[in-house]
Amino acid sequence: MPILRILLGDDHTIVRQGLRKILEDHTEWTVVAECADGREAVRQAHLLEPDVAVLDIGMPLLSGIEATRQITRRQPGLGVLILSMHSDPAFVTPALQAGARGYLLKDSADTDLLRGVTAVAAGKSFFSPAAAKVMLDDYLRRLAQKGIVDPYDALSEREREIFQLIAEGRSNKDVADLLSISVTTVETHRSHILQKLDVHNTAELVLFAVRRGVVS
Q: What's the distance, CA 110 to chain centroid?
């Protein structure tokens, strides 16, 4: 099995050392670079092409969110897991919009870090339970303010099937093969699903699925 190559970005040396120890206890993972600021994280990601980047949200010179945006624009296949002390939607939502696949609170258990890296490396998403709960509460509050019923109910049976498969991390081609439909049809359904659920990318769609209990 290929070694999973990980980039770490955090401006605190002790934090990076602790994260590195946890990650490299996994015998098939290696940390290829440590970065103390966002600009260096972007540079090293471009230079070394790791599989996963674990980035602190509050790095100097370039924030973790902006670093994520630049990294994922250049290397869309690279999974970014954001580390943060904040579970507020004001931090979580911009991170997802920037292209992060996961959002992990710094007070999470070691096992959550391992699960998060495993998920984003596989093209899936991962959220700390506390962050997901806050986002759910905020989402329901906004729905109530708009007088909107749960938009999940507006999805057709086929759209719900495709919604779950996408949330499980399957590609459009995988979905097409499983349902015996064309990739173009999947893309059309996907567009309708995003519109109906008022989400903007796959990470937000996965978070919605977690909220609804469709995936764990």
A: 18
Where residue 168 sits, what CATH number does that domain have?
1.10.10.10
Q: Tell which phi-psi region holds residue 7, choosing left (phi > 0), alpha (psi between -120 and 50) or beta.
A: beta
SS3 60: coil
Judge if 120 and 14 occupy the same domain: yes
* Residues 133/210, Cβ–Cβ less than 8 Å: no
Q: Please list, in sequence order, all residues whose beta carbon lies within 8 angstroms of the beta carbon of residue 123, skipping any fewer than 6 positions away.
A: 79, 101, 169, 171
Instruction: Tell whether 76 and 177 lie within a shared domain.
Output: no
Strand segments, DSSP code E, in the chain are 4-9, 29-35, 52-56, 79-84, 102-105, 126-127
Q: What is the pLDDT of residues 100-151, one digit of tens each?
A: 988 998 887 788 899 999 989 988 888 887 777 776 677 667 766 766 667 7
